[in-house]
Please model this.
Amino acid sequence: MSAVLPNTTPALPTSGLARALIQGNVLPASQIDDIQKKSQLEKKPFVDSLLQSGLINARDLAAFCSETFGYPLVDLSVFNEATLPEKIVDSKLMQTQRIIALAKRGNKISLAVSDPTNASAQDQIKFQTGLGIEIVVVQHDVLLKLLEKLGKTSEQSLSDIAGDDYDIEFKEEDINSAASDAQAAEVDDAPIVRFLQKMLIDAINMGASDLHFEPFEKFFRIRFRVDGELREIAQPPIAIKDKLVSRIKVISKLDISEKRVPQDGRMKLVLSASKAIDFRVSTLPTLFGEKIVMRILDGSQAQMGIDALGYDPDQKEILMNAIQRPYGMVLVTGPTGSGKTVSLYTCLNVINKPGINISTAEDPAEINLPGVNQVNINDRAGLTFPVALKSFLRQDPDVIMVGEIRDLETADIAIKAAQTGHMVFSTLHTNDAPSTLTRLMNMGVAPFNIASSVILITAQRLARRLCTCKKPADVLDEVLLQAGFKDEELDGTWKPYHPVGCERCSGSGYKGRVGIYQIMPITEAIERIILANGTSLEIEKQSEKEGVRSLRKSGLQKVKQGLTSLEEILGCTNE
Model:
């Protein structure tokens, strides 16, 4: 008995199409057997090997399948890939199973196939979609061409946008080591990586503060916040949104499998040996997927110096005198995105000297400042603002910075620290400086504690700075007077400017931003109003008597100096 050599090639199941060809006397069994063996050796679908043999062409095969199995024969070349339904069948499943979803009607889906005997593929699609299936037969060669187009659409679109690779990298310790090999493979798609790098580099070059990745039902949008305004940058193929989100979540150390609740993380982009940019990443589940917002945290902003922030000379002098006092509290107020963090860090950078111990509690720490002990608040672990502040007081501090005063307990500890020989910096979300004092009283802080601890309040906004393409504007005196200018200021020695638009500012007429400030020191007169439970209106009137300019009046000074437009100031301040 001769020895039988083992077959090392795994046997593929006999094709139903092969049996039909034999039974229909289209090809002899011997030839079909040879083709099946070849398809097994080359690990190809039977229909590919059949057509490559040249024994039958794609048109005749499609006609045979349609007649034999009773399915309609359709000319697939009349279909445009742009009109095909999206997201019904997974694109990877269509590519691997050689099937295209043509249309969805009610609870049924129409599938274009060249081998109608591929029951496994049909079962997978039924399971994935939960829909019934209607089969139409198409030519195999036309099917492959359309599948190739569909497969290249998202990759080519991303490549067109992303262009070449960039000489940047993500810091290794920031990569989520917990991600499985399968997850890593899912998000390590080269076009996705290049596209994300392109978006990050473009955002940095444009001076953006935030990137928004927004999924919707019919499209996927990416917007940058540049100079305080959101601009749409790209609409990549909607099919890549899940991969892009997964890529961002992995490098931000977020749970890639959790899509039901918001998550927060960080990532670092290394541009060169001396330049790295941090990003704060926030995810939010929406109706059509996870929206991601990335805040750019550029530590170099805190190194710009106090002069770059836009304080008028008299405002700068008052602020410098306040922050260099041995104890007390300085509060910075304004809405989200008004530059409070940069102002606080700039002040800390001014007083950051070897002989001073500075500690900060933030949620989270946005800018890394060497020489400052920075603590990230972690509510889930029990590290809250009050806990961090109590710990700071046992760490021999000179200066304490609290990211935000949110509750009475935090306010009480911060005020007690200011009363016991420490300099305290913090922020509040209020509209102007006078209303900050009444906000503290409404939180439950005793008026005498406020009067004895707070030494300065600065309210601020960020207005867009006019580009160099600006031109003088003819504005009626009545309009200027209504905006807040005084008669004596309209002396003809200056003119307001308006935006024009050029290549440098991308046609917006604005490039960069300038700060508008209301600097209000707490004087004895204001202290008396606080102790008498006075209103913010009473405090505002007293501060005006003492020469404190409102945000509107500070903004009008910037208009007079030609730094911004009247429209911009009217839009970001109230009077």
User: Anything to note?
Assistant: Residues 140-162 form the longest helix (23 residues). The chain has 21 helices and 19 strands. Confidence is low (pLDDT under 50) at residues 1-13, 153-158, 160-166, 172-187.
